Amino acid sequence: MGSSEKITMVPGVGPKLGTEFARLGISTLHDMILFAPRGYDDRREERTLRMTSQEDATISCRITVLSHSEFPSRRGRTLKVTAIDEDGTRLQLLCFNRPFLKSQLTIGSSWYIVATVERYKGMYSAASFELKKTREEAGIGRILPVYPLSGELTEKMMRRASSFALTMLSPLPDELPSQLYDRLGLMHHDRAYRAIHYPESLEEASEAKRTLSFTELLLLEIKALRDKSPRQRARSLPSRREKALISSLPFSLTPDQESCLQQIREDLDSPAPMSRLLQGDVGSGKTLVAWLSALHVIDSGGQVAFMAPTELLARQHAEGAAELLAPQGVRIAFLTGSVRGEGRRLLLRSLKEGTTDLVIGTHALFSEDVEFHALRYAIIDEQHRFGVQQREALRGKGMDPDVLSMSATPIPRTLALTLFADLDVSTIHTMPSGRIPITTYLVKEDSREKMFSAISVEFRRGHQAYFVYPRIGDDGESDLRDVTTMYDNLKAVFPGVPSALIHSRLDEDEKMRILRDFRSGRISYLVATSVVEVGIDIPNATCMVIEHADRFGLAALHQLRGRVGRSTLPSYCFLVYGRSLSEDAKARLRVMRDTNDGFRIAEKDLEIRGPGEIAGDRQSGFLRLRFASITESPELVELARTEAEAIITEDRGLLKAENAVLRKSLQD
Ligand code: ADP
Ligand code: MG
User: Fold this and answer.
1) What is the 3-state secondary structure (H, E, C) of 374-416?
2) Is the pTM of this model over 0.85?
3) Single residue among 99, 119, 141 that ends a domain in this structure
4) 177 prior amide bond cis, ω within 30
5) Of 25-29, 64-68, 150-154, 413-417, which range is least confident?
6) Cβ atoms of 99 and 77 closer than 8 Å
7) Which domain holds residue 395?
8) Which helix H or strand E contains 488, and what residues bound it?
9) Please, are residues 246 and 254 in contact by the beta-carbon 8 Å criterion?
10) Residue 280 alpha carbon, nearest atom of ligand 1
11) Rounded to an integer, what distance in angstroms lies between the CA atom of residue 212 and that of residue 179?
12) Does residue 160 belong to any structural domain of this protein?
């Protein structure tokens, strides 16, 4: 039994249908077996006309032909056949342009019919139906698979192909070590494949699905765990300047910051290159952990690159680093696309000669002309791509530094275990003490008055606010017009309160100047397009107003809200929404109102959008699950992870006889 028999072996499948199968990813009989039905057509019970309802208008029963009539229709003649089922209910079969059926459906003949009927003025009728001579042919008494289709493929053809494949390839071998079947209550694979296509009961189908999903997830986990290089854990200690910086802080590190820092140190001190994600809610103190770990590397003579997603953020980080690290004697440089000429030349030379310890910038850090003396460590801030591309870029330059990605959008655990299973993850769960949760209000567009008066009170207390407007069109012009209109309106609402408009068209120096004025309190509120970037840290800002909040995704809303609540002051977020909200938008706004917890929000986001959307870039090719759904059965993901860890710990090479099946499955 091989796995290369072509799908065109199925009787009735020629080259033309073959391409339709191929479009569904089915080239061989084996592919057909792996092709999951999207549901089932349960024909176990005979369903007569009397049993139909609005929810389920399908019938599958025996009928007898009573009479014929014919009438002209646009393209030929239509035959109307009146029949009666065994309960005595009448049904009209409309055979458009098929008057020839008359000779088959002779008066008095009996048929098994499968159809969806319509009811009009007490009369049942059906325009499309299957008629068979026997119960078996009609599939009555069975549960039939319903497959996704393509082009001219019909369910009938798909069913023929799947039964043919099951017959040809049976018995299908086990794919898991034998100990797992009993212990985890799984079906043997021959039965599982049969049951996923032609189950005896819906319970059997779901059991089969559990087995096949588990198998798929287990292989995924094993593969990811094998790809990760095993690490000899070093007993790493903080370096001299790390200790100095920690003791100079006006606060102590949170326990989570401590433990994340320790995990990173150990990776940095071990020979295998680090690929780690540091995740923690907005404001949880990731950046500080990053600076401390940078000191760890600098103290041992290495260089560090810190990359931010925008120039504005890079500058803010450079200022932060100057404040914290320069007093420790760290030599810092700032490099973005806008650093040019002589300044750039000198900077590049110092990087190459190793007289710069830490360079902070945008993706320009990894451009062609940048060479390092000894780049040991790259930190990537607020990137949702988790450093994959940057790592590739660096490898291309012959460097393979340790990479730390930082994200305030946590990966839901199920995704971390599947899609990102090859990445190590450190998590800061708890916020520095003293933070007060942000209160979030949902505000209808035409009742903003109360919101405005609440914000006035905050201004009188000397606190500050952001007003954010989304990008609405692709055309930046009209977005700018909208945000400018809002800026003017707000001036009328808050007369005499100093404000500024900030958007992507301003040049970087201008943006920086505005932010500096905002930080110093000279400006009370900022009106911004959604470029009010992630990561901006202005503790005295206590109000975040997001206009058209329904147009933002959960991750973005959470990021934006995270611009406030960065001190011990009570903070407020106002999500302003318009009239016609989609169900998803409503769900998102409710989640925002009900929780401040980034992890809960990430889980909800996964539920609402599904894994494909969230994973973005990574989705392609890496995770194409046939049977498993990580949103439907997260517990199966956990189970697969646990079992995979046990297997890999005991037999990393999968060399034991009982694991030979796994080795084979992985090769396939
Ligand atoms: P993140 O990068 O996770 O969004 P930041 O590193 O910007 O968070 O930290 C937010 C603020 O919290 C900063 O002003 C930082 O100085 C402060 N901070 C960091 N760690 C602590 C701590 N352990 N205790 C109190 N404040 C802290
Ligand atoms: Mg940050």
Assistant:
1) CEEEEEEECCCCCCHHHHHHHHHCCCCCEEEEEECCCCCHHHH
2) no
3) 141
4) no
5) 413-417
6) yes
7) 240-428
8) helix 476-493
9) no
10) 3
11) 16
12) no
How many independent structural domains does the chain possess?
4
The predicted model gives 416-428 an average pLDDT of 80
Give the single-character DSSP code of 221: H
From 295, 33, 283, 254, select the one nearest 165 (Cα to Cα): 33
- The verdict on residue 290 lying in a domain is yes
- Identify whether residues 657 and 555 lie together within a single domain: no
d(CA 468, CA 483): 8
Ligand 1 atom closest to Cα of residue 252: 23
88: left (phi over 0), alpha (psi -120 to 50) or beta: left
Average pLDDT over residues 55-84: 89
Q: Residue 598: is its pLDDT beyond 70?
A: yes
Pocket of ligand 1 (CB under 6 A): 251, 253-254, 257, 280, 282-288, 408, 432, 537, 566
- Indicate whether 200 and 311 sit together in one domain: no
- 401 Cα: distance to centroid of ligand 1 (angstroms): 26
Q: Give residue-wise pLDDT tens across range 105-120.
A: 999 999 999 999 999 8
Question: Is residue 421 located within the same domain as residue 471?
Answer: no
Nearest CA to ligand 1 atom 18: 285
The best mutation among 288, 405, 569 to test binding of ligand 1, ranked by most ligand atoms within 8 Å of the C-beta, falls on 288
Domain check: are 386 and 348 in the same one? yes
* CA 181 / ligand 1 centre spacing (Å): 49
Rounded-to-integer distance, Cα 551 and Cα 479, Å: 13
One domain, residues 562 and 517: yes
Query: Based on the domain organization, do 396 and 465 belong to the same domain?
Result: no
pLDDT in tens, 221-252: 898 888 776 666 667 899 999 999 999 999 99
What is the pLDDT at residue 606? 81
Assigned domain for 607 exists: no
What is the predicted pLDDT for the residue at 72?
Answer: 82
Question: How do residues 477-522 score in pLDDT, each as one tens digit?
Answer: 666 678 888 899 999 999 999 999 988 788 888 888 998 899 999 9
Report the distance separating Cα 508 and Cα 147, nearest Å: 54
147 part of a folded domain: no
Q: What is the mean pLDDT of residues 599-621?
A: 68
Q: How far is CA 537 from CA 287, 292, 534, in A?
A: 11, 19, 9
Percent of the chain with pLDDT over 70: 92
CA 289-295-299 angle, 5° bins:
155
Same domain, 250 and 354: yes
Report the sign of the C-alpha dihedral through residues 63, 66, 70, 76, in that order: positive
CATH of the domain at 560: 3.40.50.300
Separation between Cα atoms, residue 176 and residue 210, nearest integer Å: 14
DSSP assigned state of 364 = G
Q: Are residues 580 and 643 in the same domain?
A: no
Instruction: Give yes or no for residue 360 having a pLDDT over 90.
Output: yes
